[in-house]
Amino acid sequence: MRKLFLAVIALLGFTLTASAQQATKKTSKPATETKAPLKKDGTPDKRFKENKTPKGPLKKDGTPDKRFKENKK
């Protein structure tokens, strides 16, 4: 009985890992819709105001909340 139980668990483990590996990878496309300047590789140039977006939460007035690590720089 124990061998059957271990075989079923091993079979489920192999099945689940195989299906996880078959997931398709999404390729990230550069933002071409924005009118802000881009770098040579197509990513937004963070030196310009249009490309600077805070990653973390915002305050009610729309400014970045400096209490969060994402907004501290």
Question: What would you note in describing this structure?
Answer:
- It is a single chain.
- By secondary structure, the protein is mostly helical.
- It contains 1 helix and no strands.
- The chain has one helix at 2-21.
- The longest helix is centred in the first third of the chain and has 20 residues, at 2-21.
- It is elongated and about 65 Å long.
Question: Mean pLDDT, rounded to whole units?
Answer: 78
Oligomer: single chain
Q: Which sequence of SSEs, written as H and E, runs from N to C?
A: H
Q: Class by helix and strand content?
A: mainly alpha
- Radius of gyration from the alpha-carbon trace, in angstroms: 23 Å
Q: What proportion of the residues form beta strands (DSSP E)? A: under 5%
Distance between the termini: 60 Å
Show unreliable segments: none
Query: What is the global morphology?
Result: elongated
